[in-house]
Amino acid sequence: MILTAALSRTQAGKDVGIVNRIGEWGISLTDSVEDALEQGQPDVWIDFTTPEQVKRNVELAIDAGVRPVVGTSGLTEEEIKQLDERCREQGIGGIIAPNFALGAVLMMVFASKAAKYLPDVEVIEMHHDQKLDAPSGTAMKTAELISREREEKKQGHPEEKETLEGARGGYRDGFRIHSVRLPGLVAHQEVLFGGPGQLLTLRHDSMNRESFMPGVKLAVEEVMNRTGLIYGLENVMDL
Ligand SMILES: NC(=O)C1=CN([C@@H]2O[C@H](COP(=O)(O)OP(=O)(O)OC[C@H]3O[C@@H](n4cnc5c(N)ncnc54)[C@H](OP(=O)(O)O)[C@@H]3O)[C@@H](O)[C@H]2O)C=CC1
Ligand SMILES: O=C(O)C1=N[C@H](C(=O)O)C[C@H](O)C1
Protein backbone atom coordinates (compact mmCIF):
# COMPACT_ATOMS: atom_id res chain seq x y z
CA MET A 1 0.00 0.00 0.00
CA ILE A 2 1.19 3.49 -0.80
CA LEU A 3 0.24 6.58 1.18
CA THR A 4 -0.71 9.29 -1.31
CA ALA A 5 -1.96 12.10 0.98
CA ALA A 6 -2.78 12.88 4.60
CA LEU A 7 -5.21 15.30 6.23
CA SER A 8 -4.83 17.67 9.17
CA ARG A 9 -5.89 21.22 10.01
CA THR A 10 -3.32 21.95 12.68
CA GLN A 11 -0.28 20.37 10.95
CA ALA A 12 -1.06 21.36 7.33
CA GLY A 13 2.10 22.00 5.28
CA LYS A 14 4.32 19.79 7.45
CA ASP A 15 5.72 16.41 6.35
CA VAL A 16 3.48 13.55 7.53
CA GLY A 17 6.47 11.42 8.55
CA ILE A 18 8.10 14.20 10.55
CA VAL A 19 4.84 14.94 12.38
CA ASN A 20 4.49 11.24 13.23
CA ARG A 21 8.21 10.95 14.20
CA ILE A 22 9.02 8.24 11.64
CA GLY A 23 11.36 10.26 9.39
CA GLU A 24 10.61 12.35 6.30
CA TRP A 25 8.04 10.81 3.88
CA GLY A 26 7.89 13.52 1.25
CA ILE A 27 4.13 14.01 1.70
CA SER A 28 2.87 17.31 3.08
CA LEU A 29 -0.23 17.20 5.24
CA THR A 30 -3.14 19.14 3.74
CA ASP A 31 -6.26 20.64 5.29
CA SER A 32 -8.22 20.24 2.04
CA VAL A 33 -10.13 17.02 1.41
CA GLU A 34 -10.38 17.93 -2.28
CA ASP A 35 -6.56 18.31 -2.55
CA ALA A 36 -6.02 15.02 -0.69
CA LEU A 37 -8.33 13.23 -3.13
CA GLU A 38 -6.50 14.67 -6.14
CA GLN A 39 -2.98 13.76 -5.00
CA GLY A 40 -1.63 10.47 -6.38
CA GLN A 41 -4.93 8.96 -7.63
CA PRO A 42 -5.87 7.07 -4.45
CA ASP A 43 -7.97 3.87 -4.46
CA VAL A 44 -9.07 4.21 -0.83
CA TRP A 45 -9.98 7.02 1.60
CA ILE A 46 -9.21 6.08 5.23
CA ASP A 47 -11.17 8.28 7.63
CA PHE A 48 -10.52 8.69 11.36
CA THR A 49 -11.59 12.30 11.76
CA THR A 50 -14.56 13.72 13.67
CA PRO A 51 -18.30 13.01 13.77
CA GLU A 52 -18.87 16.51 12.27
CA GLN A 53 -16.41 16.06 9.40
CA VAL A 54 -16.81 12.45 8.34
CA LYS A 55 -20.00 12.67 6.23
CA ARG A 56 -18.66 15.40 3.98
CA ASN A 57 -15.29 13.63 3.61
CA VAL A 58 -16.90 10.36 2.62
CA GLU A 59 -19.31 12.01 0.15
CA LEU A 60 -16.42 13.80 -1.57
CA ALA A 61 -14.40 10.56 -1.67
CA ILE A 62 -17.24 8.52 -3.17
CA ASP A 63 -17.99 11.23 -5.75
CA ALA A 64 -14.32 11.08 -6.76
CA GLY A 65 -14.57 7.26 -7.11
CA VAL A 66 -12.37 6.69 -4.03
CA ARG A 67 -13.49 3.81 -1.76
CA PRO A 68 -14.18 4.83 1.86
CA VAL A 69 -12.79 2.87 4.83
CA VAL A 70 -14.26 4.65 7.83
CA GLY A 71 -13.50 4.32 11.53
CA THR A 72 -14.99 7.65 12.57
CA SER A 73 -18.05 7.27 14.76
CA GLY A 74 -21.21 9.40 14.58
CA LEU A 75 -22.82 8.54 11.22
CA THR A 76 -26.56 7.86 11.59
CA GLU A 77 -28.32 4.83 10.12
CA GLU A 78 -29.97 7.10 7.53
CA GLU A 79 -26.61 8.64 6.54
CA ILE A 80 -25.05 5.19 6.16
CA LYS A 81 -27.95 4.18 3.90
CA GLN A 82 -27.45 7.29 1.75
CA LEU A 83 -23.70 6.67 1.50
CA ASP A 84 -24.36 3.05 0.53
CA GLU A 85 -26.59 4.24 -2.32
CA ARG A 86 -23.88 6.69 -3.41
CA CYS A 87 -21.27 3.91 -3.45
CA ARG A 88 -23.57 1.71 -5.53
CA GLU A 89 -24.20 4.53 -8.00
CA GLN A 90 -20.44 4.88 -8.41
CA GLY A 91 -19.97 1.08 -8.55
CA ILE A 92 -17.45 1.09 -5.71
CA GLY A 93 -17.10 -0.64 -2.34
CA GLY A 94 -16.69 0.85 1.12
CA ILE A 95 -16.56 -0.21 4.77
CA ILE A 96 -17.61 1.56 7.94
CA ALA A 97 -16.39 -0.26 11.04
CA PRO A 98 -17.26 1.02 14.53
CA ASN A 99 -14.19 -0.88 15.73
CA PHE A 100 -11.31 -2.20 13.61
CA ALA A 101 -9.76 -4.27 16.42
CA LEU A 102 -10.45 -7.87 15.41
CA GLY A 103 -10.78 -8.85 19.10
CA ALA A 104 -13.47 -6.22 19.58
CA VAL A 105 -15.38 -7.55 16.56
CA LEU A 106 -15.21 -11.05 18.08
CA MET A 107 -16.45 -9.67 21.42
CA MET A 108 -19.47 -8.11 19.67
CA VAL A 109 -20.30 -11.29 17.77
CA PHE A 110 -19.86 -13.47 20.91
CA ALA A 111 -22.09 -11.03 22.80
CA SER A 112 -24.87 -11.40 20.23
CA LYS A 113 -24.65 -15.20 20.58
CA ALA A 114 -24.70 -15.04 24.39
CA ALA A 115 -27.75 -12.74 24.39
CA LYS A 116 -29.87 -15.53 22.94
CA TYR A 117 -29.43 -17.55 26.12
CA LEU A 118 -28.73 -14.78 28.67
CA PRO A 119 -31.01 -11.88 27.69
CA ASP A 120 -30.24 -9.76 30.79
CA VAL A 121 -27.32 -7.63 29.70
CA GLU A 122 -25.54 -4.33 30.34
CA VAL A 123 -22.68 -2.78 28.35
CA ILE A 124 -19.87 -0.76 29.95
CA GLU A 125 -17.58 1.02 27.48
CA MET A 126 -14.44 2.80 28.72
CA HIS A 127 -12.38 5.29 26.70
CA HIS A 128 -9.73 7.99 27.00
CA ASP A 129 -11.07 11.36 28.14
CA GLN A 130 -10.50 13.09 24.77
CA LYS A 131 -13.25 11.08 23.08
CA LEU A 132 -15.97 13.34 21.64
CA ASP A 133 -18.89 10.95 21.41
CA ALA A 134 -20.75 8.84 23.95
CA PRO A 135 -21.66 6.10 23.88
CA SER A 136 -18.92 4.73 21.65
CA GLY A 137 -19.64 3.46 18.15
CA THR A 138 -18.58 0.03 19.39
CA ALA A 139 -21.19 0.06 22.18
CA MET A 140 -23.93 1.09 19.73
CA LYS A 141 -22.93 -1.66 17.28
CA THR A 142 -22.80 -4.20 20.14
CA ALA A 143 -26.33 -3.17 21.10
CA GLU A 144 -27.49 -3.56 17.51
CA LEU A 145 -26.01 -7.08 17.24
CA ILE A 146 -27.38 -8.11 20.66
CA SER A 147 -30.87 -6.86 19.74
CA ARG A 148 -30.92 -9.09 16.68
CA GLU A 149 -30.60 -12.23 18.83
CA ARG A 150 -32.12 -11.25 22.18
CA GLU A 151 -35.80 -11.76 22.91
CA GLU A 152 -37.55 -8.44 23.61
CA LYS A 153 -37.28 -7.71 27.32
CA LYS A 154 -37.36 -4.72 29.66
CA GLN A 155 -34.81 -5.41 32.34
CA GLY A 156 -34.64 -4.52 36.03
CA HIS A 157 -37.35 -3.62 38.49
CA PRO A 158 -40.39 -2.01 36.82
CA GLU A 159 -40.50 0.63 39.58
CA GLU A 160 -36.79 1.43 39.48
CA LYS A 161 -36.08 5.18 39.89
CA GLU A 162 -32.87 7.19 39.50
CA THR A 163 -32.09 9.38 42.50
CA LEU A 164 -29.12 10.75 40.57
CA GLU A 165 -29.93 11.51 36.90
CA GLY A 166 -28.01 9.27 34.51
CA ALA A 167 -27.01 6.78 37.22
CA ARG A 168 -28.42 3.88 35.21
CA GLY A 169 -26.71 4.93 31.96
CA GLY A 170 -28.18 5.24 28.45
CA TYR A 171 -31.13 3.08 27.42
CA ARG A 172 -31.36 1.17 24.17
CA ASP A 173 -33.60 -1.72 23.11
CA GLY A 174 -34.45 -2.61 26.72
CA PHE A 175 -30.97 -2.53 28.22
CA ARG A 176 -28.34 -0.09 29.51
CA ILE A 177 -25.09 1.29 28.12
CA HIS A 178 -22.63 3.03 30.46
CA SER A 179 -19.77 5.27 29.26
CA VAL A 180 -16.62 5.83 31.32
CA ARG A 181 -14.08 8.52 30.27
CA LEU A 182 -10.70 8.68 32.01
CA PRO A 183 -7.11 9.59 31.11
CA GLY A 184 -5.04 6.40 30.99
CA LEU A 185 -7.73 4.43 29.18
CA VAL A 186 -7.48 3.70 25.42
CA ALA A 187 -10.57 1.73 24.25
CA HIS A 188 -12.19 -0.97 26.38
CA GLN A 189 -15.56 -2.63 26.70
CA GLU A 190 -17.28 -5.13 28.97
CA VAL A 191 -20.53 -6.87 28.13
CA LEU A 192 -22.09 -8.31 31.28
CA PHE A 193 -24.74 -11.01 31.14
CA GLY A 194 -26.63 -11.99 34.27
CA GLY A 195 -28.70 -15.09 34.94
CA PRO A 196 -29.96 -16.79 38.09
CA GLY A 197 -26.81 -17.66 40.07
CA GLN A 198 -24.42 -16.81 37.23
CA LEU A 199 -22.63 -13.97 35.49
CA LEU A 200 -20.86 -14.02 32.12
CA THR A 201 -18.44 -11.17 31.32
CA LEU A 202 -17.01 -10.57 27.85
CA ARG A 203 -14.22 -7.99 27.82
CA HIS A 204 -12.02 -6.48 25.15
CA ASP A 205 -9.11 -4.08 25.68
CA SER A 206 -7.27 -2.05 23.07
CA MET A 207 -3.95 -1.25 24.76
CA ASN A 208 -2.86 1.06 21.93
CA ARG A 209 -3.83 2.10 18.42
CA GLU A 210 -1.81 -0.70 16.83
CA SER A 211 -4.80 -2.89 17.73
CA PHE A 212 -6.87 -1.28 14.93
CA MET A 213 -4.36 -1.74 12.10
CA PRO A 214 -4.93 -5.39 11.02
CA GLY A 215 -8.64 -4.58 10.68
CA VAL A 216 -7.94 -1.43 8.66
CA LYS A 217 -5.64 -3.44 6.35
CA LEU A 218 -8.32 -6.13 5.92
CA ALA A 219 -10.93 -3.46 5.09
CA VAL A 220 -8.67 -1.72 2.56
CA GLU A 221 -8.14 -5.05 0.77
CA GLU A 222 -11.84 -5.97 0.88
CA VAL A 223 -13.23 -2.70 -0.51
CA MET A 224 -11.23 -3.20 -3.69
CA ASN A 225 -13.40 -6.23 -4.58
CA ARG A 226 -16.84 -5.15 -3.43
CA THR A 227 -19.72 -2.86 -4.39
CA GLY A 228 -21.74 -0.96 -1.79
CA LEU A 229 -21.03 0.16 1.74
CA ILE A 230 -20.57 -2.55 4.40
CA TYR A 231 -21.33 -1.60 8.01
CA GLY A 232 -19.25 -3.69 10.43
CA LEU A 233 -16.09 -5.70 9.95
CA GLU A 234 -17.90 -8.89 11.04
CA ASN A 235 -19.51 -8.84 7.58
CA VAL A 236 -16.18 -9.45 5.83
CA MET A 237 -14.72 -11.86 8.40
CA ASP A 238 -15.24 -15.63 8.18
CA LEU A 239 -17.19 -16.05 11.47
N1 LIG B 1 -13.31 2.30 14.25
C1 LIG B 1 -12.21 2.26 14.99
O1 LIG B 1 -11.59 1.21 15.13
C2 LIG B 1 -11.72 3.49 15.63
C3 LIG B 1 -12.45 4.62 15.53
N2 LIG B 1 -12.01 5.79 16.07
C4 LIG B 1 -12.83 6.96 15.80
O2 LIG B 1 -12.11 7.81 14.91
C5 LIG B 1 -12.44 9.17 15.18
C6 LIG B 1 -11.14 9.93 15.47
O3 LIG B 1 -10.68 9.56 16.74
P1 LIG B 1 -9.24 9.93 17.24
O4 LIG B 1 -8.21 9.33 16.34
O5 LIG B 1 -9.21 9.60 18.67
O6 LIG B 1 -9.25 11.51 17.10
P2 LIG B 1 -8.00 12.48 16.88
O7 LIG B 1 -8.48 13.81 17.29
O8 LIG B 1 -6.78 11.91 17.49
O9 LIG B 1 -7.80 12.42 15.31
C7 LIG B 1 -8.65 13.08 14.41
C8 LIG B 1 -7.81 13.46 13.23
O10 LIG B 1 -8.62 14.01 12.21
C9 LIG B 1 -8.03 15.26 11.76
N3 LIG B 1 -9.16 16.13 11.38
C10 LIG B 1 -10.32 16.27 12.04
N4 LIG B 1 -11.11 17.15 11.41
C11 LIG B 1 -10.42 17.58 10.34
C12 LIG B 1 -10.71 18.51 9.29
N5 LIG B 1 -11.84 19.19 9.26
N6 LIG B 1 -9.79 18.68 8.35
C13 LIG B 1 -8.63 18.03 8.40
N7 LIG B 1 -8.29 17.14 9.37
C14 LIG B 1 -9.18 16.93 10.32
C15 LIG B 1 -7.28 15.78 12.99
O11 LIG B 1 -6.22 16.60 12.63
P3 LIG B 1 -6.22 18.13 13.08
O12 LIG B 1 -6.69 18.18 14.50
O13 LIG B 1 -4.83 18.58 12.88
O14 LIG B 1 -7.19 18.77 12.16
C16 LIG B 1 -6.74 14.48 13.58
O15 LIG B 1 -5.54 14.06 13.00
C17 LIG B 1 -13.44 9.15 16.34
O16 LIG B 1 -14.74 9.20 15.83
C18 LIG B 1 -13.18 7.81 17.00
O17 LIG B 1 -14.30 7.32 17.68
C19 LIG B 1 -10.82 5.87 16.72
C20 LIG B 1 -10.05 4.77 16.85
C21 LIG B 1 -10.45 3.49 16.35
O1 LIG C 1 -12.52 7.14 20.06
C1 LIG C 1 -11.87 6.07 20.14
O2 LIG C 1 -10.74 6.01 20.65
C2 LIG C 1 -12.47 4.85 19.61
N1 LIG C 1 -13.60 4.94 18.97
C3 LIG C 1 -14.33 3.89 18.40
C4 LIG C 1 -15.69 3.80 19.05
O3 LIG C 1 -16.34 4.85 19.24
O4 LIG C 1 -16.13 2.70 19.39
C5 LIG C 1 -13.55 2.58 18.36
C6 LIG C 1 -12.64 2.37 19.49
O5 LIG C 1 -13.41 2.09 20.62
C7 LIG C 1 -11.76 3.58 19.73
From TrEMBL:
InterPro entries with a match to the protein in the record: DapB_C, DapB_N, DapB_N_CS, DHDPR_bac, NAD(P)-bd_dom_sf
Residues holding (S)-2,3,4,5-tetrahydrodipicolinate: H128, G137, T138
GO cellular component, one term: cytosol
Active site: H127 (proton donor/acceptor), K131 (proton donor)
Location(s) in or outside the cell: Cytoplasm
Region (Disordered): 148-168
Pathway(s) annotated for this protein in UniProt: Amino-acid biosynthesis; L-lysine biosynthesis via DAP pathway; (S)-tetrahydrodipicolinate from L-aspartate: step 4/4
Dihydrodipicolinate reductase N-terminal domain ranges (all copies): 3-100
EC number of this enzyme: 1.17.1.8
Protein task: Catalyzes the conversion of 4-hydroxy-tetrahydrodipicolinate (HTPA) to tetrahydrodipicolinate.
Family named by the database record: Belongs to the DapB family.
Protein name per its UniProtKB record: 4-hydroxy-tetrahydrodipicolinate reductase
Gene source species: Melghirimyces thermohalophilus
Organism lineage: Bacteria, Bacillati, Bacillota, Bacilli, Bacillales
